[in-house]
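Example (one chain per record):
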Amino acid sequence: MHTYLEAAGFGEIRSRHEMDELITDVVYHYDKRTVFRGTDGQLMAEFRREYAPDLGLVVCGEFQDDREFRPDYCFPWFGGAIVSTEQEISFEKHAGQESYAGACEDPRLGASLIFYLSNLGEYQKAYERKADIGVLPVKMSALAKEGRILLPLSEKLRDSSSFRRQAENRSRLLSAARGGDEKAIESLTMEEMNSYDVISKRLEKEDVLTIVESCFIPYGVECDQYSLTGTITSCDLVQNRRSGEWIYQMQLDVCDFSLDVSINAERLEGEPEEGRRFRGLIWLQGEVCFPE
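Predicted structure:
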């Protein structure tokens, strides 16, 4: 069973029998079905059902003799509300099943961003019709295994307009550095050295969470899992209509990068409110907006 089922409100599922019942419910009462051809030419389908707003389960499998559907795997799904980034994306098939990872570089984060492709059927259809898969919008979302709420930084310590100017300037420098601009590379190197010096001195008297407002760091050995800290810009409490469990759906600003996060209310320490910060471990998903 999937590690992040609880983040979608299925924390009470403990047995294979209960999981099979949930999969059957999705297949027979789906909200959306996408039929496509897999990489080996087999006829496949992706069944999606919501159990809360933009939150539910996806079941993927193939048809035997083009008639009987046989589930292959499933995963909890949370749909992003807004486009988080628009970059050139590369896709890589997972070795064990008919699923894909997407990868792109976002200058705001300054690192490669690897996510689990949540709309496999649309990708395969775009590939079949040989659509131009290059620079595409992506709605990023995440399921959080655990998390806690942090107080915001003091307004005396942060100037939002200054932070935004610095982020925009850093984004320009990163783009130039990727193009081989030596002055940009030198400027970024000096900036990192100055930041390290300032932070080292502040850490002697301050806690790290009063210095770092947001961060986005790979976590563990799986490429699409991260540890993040971000500012909550909106928050809703919703209920999984099948299990009755309560879920927090938050929109975060992480290094000027927008991300929607879902977490089981039982796994969140603290009370989420706009302006406060969320810190947790997430599984990153991406819904790529392919051309029609």
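Caption: The CA atoms of residues 5 and 76 lie 6 Å apart.
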